[in-house]
Amino acid sequence: MKKHILTLLFSAVCLFLQAQRTNQAYWTYIDTYKDWAIEQMHEYHIPASITLAQGLLESNAGRSRLATQANNHFGIKVGGSWTGPYIVQSDDRPDDRFRKYRSARESYIDHSKFLQQRRYQGLFRLHPTDYKGWARGLKAAGYATNPNYADALIRVIEMYSLNQFDTGKYRQARPSTAPHSPQTDDFFVKHVVYKGNKCYFIIVEVGDDMATISQKTGISLHKLYKYNDLPRDYAPTAGDLVYLQKKRKCASKEFKKNPIHIVEVNQSLHDISQLYGIRLESLCKLNKWDEPHAVEVGEIIRIR
Question: Hey, CA dihedral for 142, 143, 148, 154, is it positive or negative?
Fold first, then answer.
């Protein structure tokens, strides 16, 4: 019995750690929905960082049953004046009913309208960039029953630098090696230059190739392959992260307390190095390996 309990505890810890990790699904979600969050911010004055963080947590980056089957990205239940369709899912009760939308965009709009209720009105007196105040206010107003909801929102916002969207000036300046301003090229209308672990990167879109990325960013093909630990025949696929400068030797300080990653299904060592912005060679050194090798699901990898 004791061994069984310890196994369960270990599994729970593993799941918790995995939930906190920087992962590609989160970046893809942010890249997909950032413009809607900004749009709602301009119309309803809800910080885009808060909207994105809630969407990420409530929908598991768009992968939850509610998101995939009901386009519900914010866990909003049937209630109030809602007369539309719904989906049944266990939550506080086994037969809780959640709103079902025709599209994810409709979910984003309804989320903004949902926050117009009287119990949330005090939040709109906060400074537009006070995401911490909003996170704590949402919890205090009863948006979620999770006692750590505010901390979870703040952690996600800071881990993924979501507060950059609250000012509207979210297209990061490119590294000094790039000769042109991001604002002068259509490529940078389609691609946001993000910053993670003090490194600039973009998220690959459909139709991208390394030659085009090199041309548009002003970074040589040789350097792009080297920065990303890639072979010269690599062909990028949508959702990949491509760094525009040399990655770091370890993960960012946010992972100082829990400096490990637990390998997920279909995840390679290279995938992990990209997720955290760590050089593949440095990741091997952190784990005392002579060279990269295949990793197994559930394997614990040091990232700092």
Answer: negative
| 107 Cβ contact partners less than 8 Å away, ≥ 6 residues apart | 71, 72, 73, 74, 76, 99, 101
CATH architecture designation of domain 20-166: Orthogonal Bundle (1.10)
User: How much is the pLDDT for 170?
Assistant: 57
The third-level CATH classification (topology) of the domain covering 253-302 is: Membrane-bound Lytic Murein Transglycosylase D; Chain A (3.10.350)
Taking the model in full, what pTM does it have?
0.72
The pair of three-digit structure tokens given for residue 135, joined into one six-digit string: 């996170």
- What's the CATH fold of domain 182-243? Membrane-bound Lytic Murein Transglycosylase D; Chain A (3.10.350)
Predicted local distance difference test score (pLDDT) of residue 171: 52
What are the structure tokens assigned to 272, written together? Answer: 């992990």
How far is it, in rounded angstroms, from Cα 278 to Cα 272?
Answer: 8
> Do 279 and 248 touch, CB atoms closer than 8 A?
yes
Residue 247 has pLDDT above 70, yes or no: yes
Of 84, 83, 89, 154, the C-alpha closest to 75 is: 89
CA–CA dist 272, 22 (Å, integer): 9
pLDDT of res. 29: 93
Residue written as tokens 């491509």?
242
**255: DSSP letter:** G
Q: What is the pLDDT of residue 98?
A: 96
| Contact yes or no for 45/262 (Cβ under 8 A) | no
pLDDT of residue 185: 65
285 token code pair:
């050194």
Domain ranges of the chain: 20-166, 182-243, 253-302
What pLDDT band is residue 28 in, cutting at 50, 70 and 90?
Answer: confident
Contact 59, 67 (CB under 8 A): yes
Each residue's pLDDT tens digit, 60-108: 999 999 999 999 999 999 987 889 999 999 888 888 999 999 999 999 9
**253-302 matches 182-243 in CATH topology:** yes
